[in-house]
Amino acid sequence: MTHFVQRRVRIEKDIIARIYRTLPGKGKLSVALGQEVIPEEIIGTGQFSSGFRILNLSNLLEVPPGEIKKYLTKQINSRIYNGELLAYKKGWLLKKARVVTCPVDGILDFINEEVGEIRITRLPEKMNLPAGVYGVIEAFDQNLGQVVIRTQVSRIYGLCGTGKMRDGILHVLTKKYDLAGRSMISAKFDGSILVNGSLISKDTIMAGISDGVNGIITGGINASDYKSIAGGRLIFPKKLENDIGISIVVCEGFGAQALGEDIYELLSTFEDRFIQLDGNSATVNLPSYQSSCMNRIRKHKLSDDQTLSLTDTQLVDLKIGARVRVVGPSYSAEQGQIISIDKSKTLLSSKVSAYLVTIETARRKIRVPANNVEYLG
pLDDT of 176-209, one tens digit each? Predict the structure, then answer.
């Protein structure tokens, strides 16, 4: 009996691809066409403003909101530095003096006397742009501050996602069956890409935005949370042009879905390394960190319209020994090897008859309908 199942590419290892590096703000690129680069090599320098800080002086000084202006030691639109005196209220009788110092270097550019808040916009900082990868410069645009590098990557294809192309240092937060709570996100992950093993909550995503996290790779997400961050649409990719300030790639599906062993193990080998992800196309690029990859990069030329994506599904004949992933409701997202295929149908509790296959996973043996698996190779 022949059983045809879908084959969907989840990972492509060691492919030659193009990645894009962009200056953080206005600046100058220092590259040449055909130049070979290494990850730590600086390919440009830009000026970047990392946002602003809001301080509620009414609370800090214990005064009505409309009175905060008279306690400020700086004028509106004046420059102020980290640790410099920002506001002062004298003490009297048993009340202590109130001293507020500036937490950042910036410009005091806004006062809201209705709620007692001030805003300090950070001063632009000089930031160097490293190549991040081994590769060859194929193109660059000084006006856009963008560089195209031919390099070698391993590419992960998720099921859905949201957010523009972002990059950062990868940190695996949890085991593949665990979920990252809001308390696990902190400012130390500013600019990072995080891996969450199972379900990601909207609260955790919002905490990531607040603490400057660039992206999250996760096993599952609640459908309602996905709709709220993906423009109200519940569709699988690709090419949603949506961004809420963080990029998300969902690899397994909706609900408490653990990251598959194949993806989790690959991500774990890139701990503390530079990666890129694109939520809107649900892809993750893991650049090679072996210098020997330059031999392949030099030899392999890419045409202007060449694409290395193999994400289209195809039907293949299921055989004993095949590695598969469960896509049905029972044992969803588990992976393993086919060790037997029934020759006759079994009547399921749903009153549907189906051919069952036995799969040996890392933890146990399971039996599922043949139609509820996809081929991994």
Answer: 888 788 889 888 898 899 999 889 999 999 888 8
Give the Å distances, CA to CA, from 286 to 132, 155, 277, 338: 11, 6, 9, 29
Evaluate if residue 39 carries a pLDDT over 90. yes
CA 172 – CA 251 distance, rounded (Å): 15
pLDDT of residue 306: 52
Q: What is the pLDDT of residues 307-350, one digit of tens each?
A: 444 445 577 888 888 888 887 777 877 888 989 989 888 888 77
Question: What predicted TM-score, i.e. pTM, was given to this entire model?
Answer: 0.72
Q: What local confidence, expressed as pLDDT, does residue 50 receive? A: 64
